[in-house]
C-alpha cells in the first residue's frame, strides 16, 4: 500500500476513536449538543479519509505525486482544526466561530485538491495476466 494510504488510514482511525468517544460521551451524558462535531469528526475524519486512502491505494501512480501529499496535509489540517473548534462552539463558545469558518475553508481547499487529483490524468498501469499452462 502506498505511504499516503497508510498515512490516511492511520489519521482516519484516530478521528474514528475521537468521534466514537464523543458519541459515547453524548449518549452517557444525554447531552447531544455537540452532535455536529461528532458527525463531522466521523464522516469527514474517518469515512472520507478512508475513502481518500483507498483511492490512492487503487491509483499508486497518483499516490507518488507531491500533490497527493500536499492534499493530505491541507485536508488533515482543516479537519484537525474544525473538530475541536466546532466542539467548543457547540458547547457555547461563540468566539470559536471564525476558527470554524477558517477550518471549513481549509477543508474545502483539501476537497478541491482531491477533485483535481481525481480528474488529472494518471498513467494507465497494465497488470500482467497470469500465465496460462493449458
Ligand atoms: C460507539 C459509536 C457511536 C456512538 C455511541 C454514537 C452516538 C451518537 C449519538 C448519541 C448521537 C446523537 C443522536 C441524536 O441526538 O439524535 C449521534 C449522532 C450521529 N452520529 Fe453517532 N455515534 C457513534 C458512531 C458514529 C459513527 C462511526 C458515525 C459515522 C461514521 C456516526 C455518525 C453520526 C451522525 C451523522 C449523527 C447525526 C445524526 C442525526 O442528526 O440525525 N456516529 N451519534
UniProtKB/TrEMBL annotation:
SUPFAM superfamilies: Cytochrome c oxidase subunit I-like
Superkingdom, natural source: Bacteria
Membrane-spanning intervals of the chain: 7-28, 34-58, 70-87, 99-119
Keyword Membrane: yes
UniProt keyword annotation of Membrane present: yes
Keywords, in A-Z order: Membrane, Transmembrane, Transmembrane helix
Name of the protein described by the UniProt record: Signal peptide protein
Organism name: Rhizobium favelukesii
Amino acid at each position: 500500500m502506498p505511504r499516503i494510504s497508510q498515512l490516511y488510514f492511520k489519521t482516519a482511525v484516530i478521528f474514528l476513536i475521537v468521534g466514537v468517544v464523543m458519541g459515547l460521551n453524548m449518549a452517557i451524558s444525554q447531552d447531544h449538543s455537540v452532535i455536529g462535531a461528532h458527525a463531522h469528526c466521523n464522516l469527514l475524519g474517518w469515512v472520507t479519509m478512508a475513502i481518500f486512502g483507498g483511492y490512492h491505494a487503487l491509483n499508486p501512480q497518483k499516490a507518488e505525486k507531491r500533490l497527493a501529499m500536499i492534499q493530505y496535509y491541507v485536508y488533515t489540517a482543516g479537519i484537525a482544526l474544525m473538530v475541536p473548534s466546532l466542539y467548543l462552539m457547540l458547547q457555547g463558545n461563540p468566539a470559536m466561530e471564525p476558527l470554524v469558518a477558517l477550518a471549513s475553508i481549509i477543508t474545502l481547499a483539501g476537497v478541491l485538491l482531491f477533485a483535481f487529483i481525481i480528474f488529472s490524468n494518471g498513467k494507465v498501469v497494465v497488470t500482467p495476466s497470469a500465465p496460462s499452462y493449458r
